[in-house]
Amino acid sequence: MWLARALQSQGFGSRKGCVLRVRSGAVSINGVVVDDPEHEVDPVGLELTINGVTWPYHEKAYVLMHKPAGYECSHKPKHHPSVFSLLPAPFIERDLQCVGRLDQDTTGLLLFSDDGQFIHRMTSPKKGVAKVYRATCADPVDAAMLDALRNGVLLNDEPAPIAALACEAIDGHSLQLTLAEGKYHQVKRMIGATGNRVDKLHRVAIGDFVLPETLAPGSWCWLEAADLLQLEQPWRSVMS
Ligand code: URA
């Protein structure tokens, strides 16, 4: 692959812009400036340095963010800044999309990708990839509430009750809830249907992949193949 083409594929501008960028001497590989746009590169394991910033080549982008509160999962946010404002510009140029949305006040594990098939597999209810949330509730969490969430609660506009895959109390006011799908405000609506209210909501895991404690709110990192396998693990009940 030509260097300028590799640069373009990573979101560093138009074909012409990338040719000019390479010619200007802004791009180096392994510490050596390469100013020939037609220089052949092997994309596998390629690390580009553009104006001093190192960028590992990824054919498709899989990105993890620890979403902070107060950001909307939209390219055109209405009332709060966009989560995309926390990502570097090449991701926007590459048209990265949120893999499912979190509400502006929800924190935790948020994925982005430009791989449409991956986004479909992670978000389609038919695939049943589990999403795990920790909810802090306004009123105490009791056994009746946990039973209702496990057995199914009826939500407005839904034809049948919806049950959590799993639900356990964490302490007197908080619980962990595992869902197979991601309907609009689903956790808040399910907990609302039990007569309680969500004060704080945090997504801790998707599939078998847990948000790393080392990733600070507002930070992001690349996901690699092993992470993707964990994300796509089908849900298994601890009871079975
Ligand atoms: N359920 C909700 O209610 N809100 C979220 O952000 C995610 C799941």
Task: Give short descriptive properties of this protein.
single chain; 240 residues; alpha+beta; Structural Genomics Hypothetical 15.5 Kd Protein In mrcA-pckA Intergenic Region, Chain A; Alpha-Beta Plaits; 3 domains; 9-stranded mixed sheet; 4-stranded antiparallel sheet; 25% strand; binds uracil
> Which ligands does the model contain, each kind named once?
uracil
Distinct helical segment count: 7
The secondary structure category is: alpha+beta
β-sheet strand percentage: 25-35%
Whole-angstrom Rg: 21 Å
The number of strands is: 13
Mean pLDDT: 95
Poorly predicted residue ranges = none
What is CATH's topology name of the largest domain?
A: Alpha-Beta Plaits
Instruction: Label the overall shape.
Output: elongated
Known CATH architecture of the largest domain = 2-Layer Sandwich
H and E order: HHEEEEEHEEHEHEEHEEEH
Number of domains: 3
For CATH, the homologous superfamily of the largest domain is named as: Pseudouridine synthase I, catalytic domain, N-terminal subdomain
Major β-sheet profile: 9 strands, mixed
Structure explained in plain terms:
By secondary structure, the protein is an alpha+beta fold. It is built from seven helices and 13 strands. Helix 1 packs across helix 2 (15-23). The longest helix has 9 residues, at 15-23. It is elongated, with a radius of gyration of 21 Å. Bound molecules: uracil (URA). Uracil binds at residues 102-103, 106, 185-188, 201.
